[in-house]
Amino acid sequence: MFTRQSLLVCAFLSAAVGASSFAEKPATDAVGDPLPAHAVARLGTTRFRHVGKVISVAYSPDGKWLASGGYDGLVRIWDAESGRELRQCRGHDGMVWPVLFSPDGKVLASGGSDGVIRLWDPQAGKPIRDFKAHPDGVFKLVFTSDSKTLISGGGDGFIRIWDVEAGKERKPLRPGNQIHGLALSPDDKILASADQQGDIRLWDFAGAMETILIHAHKSGIDALAFSPDGKTLASAGWDDTTGLWEVPSGKEIRKLEGHTDSVWSAVFSPNGKTLATGSRDGTIRLWDGKTGQPGLVLEGCRGPVARVVFSPNGKRLASASWDGSVRVWDVAAGKEVVGFSGHAGALTAVALLADGRRATTAGADGMVCAWDAAGGKLLGQFSAPDFANAHLTLSADGRTAAVVGVLGRFSICDALTGKDRLVFQGPDVSATDVPATAVALSADGGLLACANTRGEIGLWDAAAGKRIRTVDDVRGAAVLAFSADPSFLVGVSSMHTVVLWNTATGRQVQEFDPGGMVYEAAVAPDGRTVAAATTGGKILLWETLTGKERRVWEDQPEVQALAFAPDGRLLAWGGRDGAVSFWDLATGRLRGRFTGHSGAVTAIAFAADGKTAISGGADSTALVWDLSGLDALQEPPIADVAATWTALADDDAGKASDAMWGLAAAPKAALPFLRERLKPAPTVDEATVTKLVAQLDDDNFDVREKATNDLIALGKPVEPLLQAAQKKPGLSAEAQERIKRVLAEVGASRPATGEIQARRAIEALEHMDAPEARDILQTLAKGGADNPVTRDAKATLARVEARHAP
């Protein structure tokens, strides 16, 4: 079930969002930050957001700034009131773990997984100096009260002491275990350290001597904090408790219980009256600093809370969360005071509604959001069901959301309102021992595909909650995507092959070898082309008719999102560089590269009219793009229609594709020629097939063999007649085996050259916006009902007529 997480604004469902055009919108987003070129709206915000998990946060001594570090390898400095990013400090080669301002505010220190401590000028964001500190990573940092000395702890089991001004290390301390907690008493006399075994050590800091060992927790400790008077030490334990210890005796005062998972952070307020703890359970708890009595519980983070820190005046509390956000809370009210609407963390799916004015997004934070796509205003947001390791996705029309959990629970809901349409238990397809690996919804939300580790893909009627069929032997599909209609489903197997299935039969249509790991795959709206992004920055296009390569792009940034435009002429992709690139499939040329995301592009979709597109990023935002800014369309040249027609039959799918686009670009010259060449496919004579089937039982081997070969020569149109013959009584075992042989060879056989040429010509007709093209399709659609050319013409005509429907 989808539960409401914030105020829902539902009036928009029955009224238009607004009459103002994209062109009239100012070049700023909903919170006043500049929009990138070609963007008409930003859905969500980059304020107080990292790309990936946030590990640490610290207030400047005057309380005006917040600094944070995380998995994106950046130290970010924010305006503490507005959340606006002031500057970035770049230099760590890996994740940033602790960040800390010196008490005098002149230095910002950071430590990372690269084992380096970096000192920054926070005013300029420029480096001051580096310390190569802990080879296994810098876990903790503490300044002395005079800002002259920096103390660090890391994975190498050393506590290292640094002269900030001179840049030199003093003699280190060696507790022996990894240093996960580090704190210095307010008078700088007692240093406390904690390790992954759950032990606390107190040190005479001046004398560099261990004074007390406390066996504090059953497992590791992730943070230590002294009370302002120095008489109490708090410890954040992996055993879900917070310990309070008397200083300097080390005697236990009490254990605070309430969190349901590891406690990762503990800090006293400046006046010592409040203790705040943050936990892997995603909550922040406030406690009475003297009595340990529980107080408010702060909820809203959509991931584990890695760090909490009080502002200098104690009125506010900042948190760093694995959901990718920094949050600021009013301590007295227990409410977020600098909050922003939208997602926290990477987006997993984006969609623009048919009206082009609304959009829906889904994120790794488990949220589904509905937006005004013109102005970036949040219209409603909903929390997905709390299924363990759930997969969340959207339909391409933006109206349906689906969640599939490892326990086989399915939830289908209205993506605009959050209202449940269906919640059901799906046996076998996603049981506890065979968790889901990928999920996809068809464009209209009617079909749901779910792959699991057992190598199955279940196809479900999403409205009824009924399984329609199962596709076998996919070897754990990690990516699934429907074609627009949705006749086809594409998947990427764990063996790094790309497989295309017919959703009506569940049969495999083609299998493509990309030559490497595949990050993303997509099917063109007409189902004739499959695209895949692979390692090494390669984008491949295959023709589904022949399984051969149509085009390849090399040396692209690592691509994580792919989408075909509704007319099949553009392919958009986005990757780690944060840019969305739009490529012309007819010429292979780049028509535009739009930049604006501060992290990888993780999802892309087009509006139904192809005039706008939307991209979702790891930076927690979506950007709506005006595609009128793309370079002008350049049609491929065509020198001779007859030669181009001949090239349609070329065994090289790339050359044939160029010929197809050439014909499509020259309807005036091509249409009369195609009208003469393309004729309705003949109907397979049922009497002939019946006679040949009877000959499969003939006493003469040569007759039986000739009948078998004659049936194979009839090709795919013979399939339904033979399938019907199989069900009739009286056939001998040999006749049954021969029919199976015919069906196997016909099913696996490459289409005849004439069929390939005709179907590529039909593809060209679909790309012509001309009544004469529709006339030819209507003629071809009257051919033999079971002929692939006829079926292709009918499907093409249906798509063309749908596009021109009022």
What does it look like?
- Helix content is 15%, strand content 39%.
- It is mostly beta strands.
- It has a five-stranded antiparallel β-sheet with strand order 1-34-33-32-31, with no helix packed on it.
- A hairpin with a 3-residue loop joins β48 (529-534) and β49 (538-543).
- α1 packs antiparallel against α2 and α2 packs across α8.
- It is elongated, with a radius of gyration of 32 Å.
What does this entry show, briefly?
The chain has 806 residues and is mainly beta. A five-stranded antiparallel beta sheet has the order 1-34-33-32-31, with no helix packed on it.
Rounded to an integer in angstroms, the radius of gyration calculated over CA atoms is 32 Å
Share of residues in helices: 10-25%
Strand content: 35-45%
What is the count of β-strands?
Answer: 57
- What gap, in angstroms, lies between the N and C termini? 37 Å
Structural class: mainly beta
Shape: elongated
Strand order across the largest sheet: 1-34-33-32-31
Low-confidence stretches: 1-23, 428-432
Largest sheet: 5 strands, antiparallel
What is the average per-residue confidence, as pLDDT, rounded to a whole number?
90
Tally of individual helices? 10
